[in-house]
């Protein structure tokens, strides 16, 4: 699982919630779109394919919109099937619809109550592969 989040506190909250859900999967955190691209390029170079199960993507990473990474991933044959969950504080349904149209699996509102985040993340179990 890859978390793309520029806010350290939000990234740690997501990692904590994932651990609380007892997902037995590797979690990598990057703080930029460029970091995510580097992560994918490194994985492709080392494994010959994308081995990331799910991407949890902040709707606004620094000055870049989630659309930047969604478009990049959906144009790459090795990455286009990886489910992307966009986490956002935005309440604008047009942005949410845009991310879905660009290939996001779903859009989740950023939650600051750990119970709400844990509940929302429980649905990710269908995507996560066990660590060998």
Automatic annotation (TrEMBL):
The modification 4-aspartylphosphate is found at residue 58. Pfam families: Response_reg (PF00072). Signal peptide: none annotated. Residues 1-125 form the Response regulatory domain. Transmembrane segments: none annotated. GO terms for biological process: phosphorelay signal transduction system. Keywords: Phosphoprotein. This is Response regulator. The lineage of its organism: Bacteria, Pseudomonadati, Pseudomonadota, Alphaproteobacteria, Rhodospirillales. Gene3D superfamilies: 3.40.50.2300.
